Amino acid sequence: TQLLEQSPQFLSIQEGENLTVYCNSSSVFSSLQWYRQEPGEGPVLLVTVVTGGEVKKLKRLTFQFGDARKDSSLHITAAQTGDTGLYLCAGVSYGQNFVFGPGTRLSVLP
Amino acid sequence: NAGVTQTPKFQVLKTGQSMTLQCAQDMNHNSMYWYRQDPGMGLRLIYYSASEGTTDKGEVPNGYNVSRLNKREFSLRLESAAPSQTSVYFCASSETWESPLHFGNGTRLTVT
After folding, report:
1. Nearby residues of B85 by Cβ (< 8 Å), 6 or more positions away
2. B78 CB contacts (<8 Å, ≥6 apart)?
3. CB–CB of B98 and A30 under 8 A?
């Protein structure tokens, strides 16, 4: 059974601070996705990473896929209150369904 | 463009009652999924339908049944609800098995 772990589980920071959250597994994935979920809504895709070592930027968010395609990180620069939410990583392997991590709940305080 | 629509948004059941959760997508996606989300456990796959006419069990199928009514609609049925099925249920769709998932806004179910 493939498992994805995310750390930290909870994170509370002040507006303007930087932060990094991690997504780790012992399994190799063909691609990995990051989603953000706000209260009362479904998860919304932020990015998909496919190639080992790949780095993608989405405004203040930087996503990296590990060289071995087993882990990923999400770095947020100068966090804003609008970044508050649950961040989920999800990995998929050939012929398998998506596996989701438990999520990192981020709270950005004004 | 509605995306993925789930009904109802909230439901309270007594143990032993049955109900069907409805899901429809308007993106012409081939694959559809039902997940449950519980605190600290992420999203767990209940059932999925890779294409119209097929359904398969996911990680936690016990106590549930599904129907892929047509390409647009995928329903989830609880035949005899149990308190352990108290959860938030999400329907999702994707173009292919590895394409990004598009989620509905969920059904919050409480079984007493």
Report:
1. B63, B78, B109, B111
2. B13, B18, B19, B20, B21, B63, B64, B85
3. yes
Asked if the bond preceding A8 is cis, omega within 30° of 0, the reply is yes
How many interface pairs between A and B have CB atoms less than 8 angstroms apart? 50
Tell the residue number behind the tokens 């059904």, with chain if given. Answer: B107
Task: Please state which of the ranges A59-68, A99-108, B92-101 shows the lowest mean pLDDT.
Answer: B92-101
- Mean pLDDT in chain A? 94
Residues in chain A with CB shorter than 8 Å from the CB of B104 are: 42
- Annotate A12-46 with DSSP letters as a single string: EEETT--EEEEEE-SS--SEEEEEEE-TTS--EEE
Residues of chain B contacting residue A35, judged by C-beta atoms under 8 Å apart: 101
pLDDT of residue B24: 98
CB contact under 8 A, B100 and A92: no
Residue A34 region by backbone torsions, left for phi larger than 0, else alpha for psi between -120 and 50, else beta: beta
> Which of A4, A88, A97 is the closest to B45 by Cβ?
A97
Query: What's the token pair of residue A9?
Result: 């589980």
- Residue A24 is which amino acid? N
So what's the pLDDT on residue A2?
Answer: 64
Please judge whether B106 and A9 are an interchain contact, meaning their C-beta atoms are less than 8 angstroms apart.
Answer: no
**What confidence score (pLDDT) does residue A94 get?**
82
- Write the pLDDT tens digit of every residue in B46-78: 999 999 989 999 999 999 999 999 999 999 999
